[in-house]
Amino acid sequence: MIIRWQKHQEYYIVRMYQDLVGDWIVTQSWGDYTENKCACNQTVSTSYQDARLMVREIRKQLKRKGFRHVARKETQLGFEFDH
Q1: Helix or strand run (H / E) with residue 49
Q2: Alpha carbons 29 and 42: distance in angstroms, whole number
Q3: pTM recorded for the entire structure
Q4: Which of helix, strand or coil describes residue 34?
Q5: Burial state string for 5-20 with b = 16 or more CB within 10 A and e = fewer than 16
Q6: Domain 2-69 carries which CATH code?
Q7: Given a cut of 70, is residue 15 above it in pLDDT?
Q8: Model confidence pLDDT, tens digit, residues 41-79
Q9: Does the pLDDT value for residue 4 go beyond 70?
Q10: Which of 76, 74, 71, 75 lies closest to 5 in space, CA to CA?
């Protein structure tokens, strides 16, 4: 899952995915297009529900700060690791 928000030239992107050992990862990336600044943070969660709660809280915080959701169509690629 990839969710994007924007406020003027500021952006915030949240990615939620499951890694190869089964943990759920929530990655937060943010920055400003005009100042060419950015940062990133990753949090490991052991359950899907906890990761979803984290994403929900991030969404609430961003809405309070005036960010708006930016809809973009994303394509998820599937990889087969079995031989």
Answers
A1: helix 48-64
A2: 9
A3: 0.80
A4: coil
A5: beeeebbbbbbbeeee
A6: 3.10.450
A7: yes
A8: 999 998 999 999 999 999 999 999 999 999 876 666 666
A9: yes
A10: 71
Query: Encoding tokens for residue 27?
Result: 């990655």
Question: Token pair for residue 61?
Answer: 């915080």
Which neighbouring-strand residues pair with 6? Answer: 11, 68
Cα–Cα distance for residue pair 7/63, rounded to 1 Å: 10
Angle at 28 (CA atoms; ends 47, 40), nearest 5 degrees: 125
Look up residue 37 and give its two tokens.
């600044």
**What residues does each domain of the chain span?**
2-69
Give pLDDT tens digits for 23-38: 999 999 999 988 888 9
Instruction: State mean pLDDT over 14-30.
Output: 94
- First CA to last CA distance, the chain: 27
Q: Are 43 and 26 in contact (CB under 8 A)?
A: yes
Rounded-to-integer distance, Cα 65 and Cα 72, Å: 21
